[in-house]
Amino acid sequence: MELAKVSPPTEKRKYQPCSMNKSGSATCGENVLMEKNGKEILLGGKEELIVKEGETILIKPLGGGGFGKP
Questions:
Q1: d(CA 47, CA 59)
Q2: For 14-24, what is each residue's pLDDT tens digit?
Q3: What global pTM score does this model have?
Q4: In principle, which of 13, 26, 35, 44 could form an S-S bond with 63, CB 3.0–4.6 Å?
């Protein structure tokens, strides 16, 4: 049974956001489809899919790049 058609418009899933002033770069974000059976499927940044009953989409936002010495 289809529950919803989703297309999260997320960025920075492949390349880390840059920092300024030689600080550490931020972490990339992740989009994960968690199936009913517990299997996790890593999704891209711009993907369209059908979410079925019992499935969940987990969106982990990216971190912010630093400024100055960490």
A1: 12
A2: 777 777 776 77
A3: 0.68
A4: 26
